[in-house]
């Protein structure tokens, strides 16, 4: 049948599939009725002992059981499973030709065979109606011989002793949990002359059958003796029973699972904290009205990364409103200068941003392009085109770091700024007043072209003086006419009488020599100089104002 011996050495009589039989026999028969030399011997004795375990999905509806057999033949092929236990078929019960003596461990109640219950041990001789039977259990020597119930299909290891005393024709059967010795009082005993049933040669083995429920019968160890007790079974050497039913929670899982879940919770928590911190770190202010300025808006995250977190290493300079940092936009790799301005009120912010956006549309080769802005709770960030040669003030006053600009370079820068102003005053769609022309707002690109930066943030007012104001570092190496013109124009542009100030187109024409220099008489000049002196303006301020 389906009986197999597992690699561990376990005899598995049935495998869980419904309505199957399994048989296992010692391969060679034993002499029972006669001595080995052939002389007739009356009534030999024998003893069988074995350890078994029966697994059922449900102990109450278990099918069907197993039996240990001593029989005339090992051929039980003409038998049936289920209640027939693989010992008989449906028409040969009780037939003397069956020639078997069996001890059944019956886990199913069957009326046909007058079973006493669904958990009993019975002595069967050619017939499944037991000669004698008893509910499973044992008389406990440790408890004054009181009867203890056992559940055959509990999947607990139990030991069975089947003994036949040939002299007294006495059959006795005992059952006990595997860790106990054979009880003094057997569970069952009966008087029966097995010589009338069994021939000279007998086969010793097991039979089991399943019905409509998943059940498995195992024999873990077995011993047999003729004319002596069955040798003791060393229970420490028994094979392991396979795990059955739903997977039990292992010790490893009991330890690992909490640790893993704790780690998981910790990881999720940390991630949430990091995400929240990240949100706060990169948090911006954004309002509905800003959508119209959309393209000019930068994310704080991008600016943060562009400037390497506003590191001091990236600091380009510090102005009146805040620090300016060099940066490289992460995606486009465009170089930028980011001005960080702290502000504490939302007042005028809308107008300011509108201004920023409109300035962003200013496009002139002499104007530092404003790329856009970003707004946070207490700061505003302005993003400009990066000017690699820095601001003009560094060349004029920070002599150690920068070379002296030649007159030609200076005059070029003056003309550059004049054309930037012409564009702002007269050429663009709106009139834009810069109102803060000074060397630190004149930036120089990599071709040393003058570029006007920084709109609308400061309200200062400077003026200049004649050639005294020309930078001594030039050591006289300059075009006196041009220098005078530049200074005169500077003064004229800041004339207290507004009507006398030239417009930027005229300024540029003067600078380019397209128009004769303005006719400034000395009275005018002294007036100006005097008024300046009265205002206690220093020569440095004058120089600054005229950028030369
Ligand atoms: N677009 C830019 N490219 C390179 N450097 C810049 C740029 N804008 C400003 N800087 C540097 O940062 C310094 C401070 O700028 P800013 O705040 O505009 O000065 P201020 O407040 O004096 O007008 C400038 O002097 C200049 O060195
Ligand atoms: C049990 O054995 C039978 C016959 O060999 C086989 O068809 C069946 O698949 C087996 N069942 C299991 C659960 O291994
Ligand atoms: C005068 C001066 O510093 N010029 C520098 C302007 O920037 C370019 C490019 O960065 C340099 O090559 C010049 O030396």
From TrEMBL:
Membrane topology: Single-pass type I membrane protein
InterPro entries: ConA-like_dom_sf, Kinase-like_dom_sf, L-type_Lectin-RKs, Legume_lectin_dom, Prot_kinase_dom, Protein_kinase_ATP_BS, Ser/Thr_kinase_AS
EC numbers: 2.7.11.1
Subcellular compartments: Membrane
SUPFAM superfamilies linked: Concanavalin A-like lectins/glucanases, Protein kinase-like (PK-like)
UniProt keyword terms in alphabetical order: ATP-binding, Glycoprotein, Kinase, Lectin, Membrane, Nucleotide-binding, Receptor, Serine/threonine-protein kinase, Signal, Transferase, Transmembrane, Transmembrane helix
Cellular component annotations (GO), alphabetically ordered: membrane
Family of this protein: In the C-terminal section; belongs to the protein kinase superfamily. Ser/Thr protein kinase family.
Name recorded for this polypeptide: non-specific serine/threonine protein kinase
């Amino acid at each position: 049948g389906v009986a197999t011996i597992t690699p561990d050495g376990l005899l598995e009589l049935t495998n869980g599939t419904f309505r199957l039989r399994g048989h296992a026999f010692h391969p060679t028969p034993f002499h029972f009725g006669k001595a080995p030399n052939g002389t007739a011997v009356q009534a030999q004795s024998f003893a069988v002992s074995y350890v078994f375990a029966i697994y059922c999905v449900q102990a109450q509806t278990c099918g069907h059981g197993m039996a240990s057999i001593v029989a005339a033949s090992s051929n039980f092929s003409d038998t049936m499973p289920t209640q027939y236990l693989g010992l008989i078929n449906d028409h040969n019960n009780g037939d003397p030709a069956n020639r078997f003596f069996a001890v059944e461990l019956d886990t199913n109640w069957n009326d046909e065979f007058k079973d006493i219950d669904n958990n009993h041990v019975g002595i069967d001789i050619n017939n499944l109606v037991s000669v004698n039977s008893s509910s499973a259990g044992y008389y406990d020597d440790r408890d004054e011989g009181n009867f203890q119930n056992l559940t055959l299909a509990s999947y607990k290891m139990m030991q069975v002793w089947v003994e036949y005393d040939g002299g007294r024709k006495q059959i006795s059967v005992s059952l006990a949990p595997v860790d106990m010795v054979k009880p003094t009082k057997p569970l069952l005993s009966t008087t029966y002359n097995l010589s009338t049933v069994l021939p000279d040669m007998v086969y010793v083995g097991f039979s089991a059958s399943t019905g409509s429920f998943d059940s498995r019968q195992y024999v873990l160890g077995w011993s047999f003796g003729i004319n002596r007790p069955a040798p003791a079974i060393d229970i420490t050497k028994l094979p392991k029973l396979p795990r059955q039913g739903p997977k039990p929670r292992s010790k490893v899982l009991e330890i690992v699972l909490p640790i893993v879940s704790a780690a998981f919770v910790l990881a999720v928590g940390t991630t949430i904290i990091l995400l929240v911190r990240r949100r706060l770190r990169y948090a911006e202010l954004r309002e509905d009205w800003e959508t119209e300025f959309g393209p000019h808006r930068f994310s704080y995250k991008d600016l943060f990364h562009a400037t390497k977190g506003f590191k001091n290493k990236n600091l380009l300079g510090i102005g009146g409103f805040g620090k300016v940092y060099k940066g490289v936009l992460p995606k486009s790799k465009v170089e930028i200068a980011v001005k960080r301005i702290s502000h504490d009120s939302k007042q005028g912010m809308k107008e300011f941003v509108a201004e920023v956006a409109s300035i962003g549309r200013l496009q002139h080769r002499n104007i530092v392009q404003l790329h856009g802005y970003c707004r946070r709770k207490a700061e505003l960030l302005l993003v400009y085109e990066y000017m690699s040669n820095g601001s003009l003030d560094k060349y004029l006053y920070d002599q150690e770091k920068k070379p002296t600009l030649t007159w030609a370079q200076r005059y070029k820068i003056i003309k550059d700024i004049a054309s930037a102003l012409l564009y702002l005053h007269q050429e663009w769609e709106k009139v834009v007043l810069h109102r803060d022309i000074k060397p630190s707002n004149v930036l120089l690109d990599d071709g040393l072209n003058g570029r006007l930066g920084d709109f609308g943030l400061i309200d200062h007012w400077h003026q200049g003086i004649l050639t005294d104001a020309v930078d001594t570092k030039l050591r006289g190496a300059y075009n006196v006419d041009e220098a005078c013109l530049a200074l005169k124009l500077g003064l004229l542009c800041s004339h207290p009488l507004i009507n006398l100030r030239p417009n930027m187109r005229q300024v540029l024409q003067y600078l380019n020599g397209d128009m004769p220099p303005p006719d400034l008489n000395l009275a005018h000049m002294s007036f100006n100089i005097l008024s300046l002196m009265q205002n206690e303006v220093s020569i440095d301020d004058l120089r600054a104002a005229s950028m030369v």
